Amino acid sequence: CNTLQCILKGPTVQKFSSIGLIVAYLLLSGCATTTYESVFGYRDTITYSPGGEVERFQDAAQDVLKTGKQVKINGYCISACVIFADIARTNICITPRTIFRLHLATSGAYGEITWATSPYQRTRFRIMEKSEPSFSPDIRAWIQGKGGLPSNGNFIDMPASEAVRFWKTCS
Predict the structure, then answer these.
(1) Which residues pair with 71 in a beta bridge?
(2) What are phi and psi of 154, to 5 degrees?
(3) Rounded Cα distance, 169 and 132, in Å
(4) Backbone angles phi, psi at 57, to 5 degrees
(5) Each residue's pLDDT expressed in tens, for the chain with a length of 171 residues
(6) In sequence order, which residues have a C-beta less than 8 Å from that of residue 31 and are 6 or more positions away?
(7) Which of 11, 7, 10 is nearest to 27 (CA)?
(8) Measured distance CA(142)–CA(27) in Å, rounded
(9) Residue 89 near residue 169 (C-beta atoms within 8 A)
(10) Are 88 and 71 in contact, with CB atoms under 8 Å apart?
(11) Backbone dihedral angles phi then psi of residue 23, each to the nearest 5 degrees
């Protein structure tokens, strides 16, 4: 049986809502993928994006390239949004209001450690790793020309006046 048929015939089918069954089917069948709409919603203009998980933005960029969707950036495009715009560059246009904000990529984990002196005393810690995001060579060269991405977690801004070297302007 296919995945949906197996779920529908199983003894616990009453425990699932119809939406739950559809979601389960999509997840189990590998049909649930990141699309542009799942990251940015159903709009053709990005006026503000704080970024997020890089992989989702990379997948959204591939979706834009595959579908031919044209996207206008008319405001702040931060962090992973810049990676999206870099990958999908042929399908992106910018306005004079566009500002790209770039920083070192961070990944990390939260955890707890118990000191041997007292099993009740816990200290939270966070392990952070900073790395250079995957930008195209011309964007990396622009970053290096600005002195590189700050190691203190700050951003560098690329205003539209400089971004027009890399992205077309919207007509």
Answers:
(1) 92
(2) -70, 165
(3) 27
(4) -70, -35
(5) 433 333 333 444 444 445 554 544 444 444 445 688 888 887 899 999 999 988 899 999 999 999 999 999 999 999 999 999 999 999 999 999 999 999 987 655 444 444 444 444 444 444 444 445 679 999 999 999 999 999 888 999 999 999 999 999 998
(6) 25
(7) 7
(8) 40
(9) no
(10) yes
(11) -60, -45
Query: Beta strand 71-78 with 105-114: parallel, antiparallel or unpaired?
Result: unpaired
Please, where are the H alpha helices in 41-136?
54-67, 80-87
Q: Which of 65, 79, 71 is nearest to 47 (CA)?
A: 71
CA distances from 75 to 100, 120, 127, 132 (A): 8, 48, 32, 24
What is the rounded CA–CA span in Å between residue 96 and residue 64? 22
pTM: 0.68
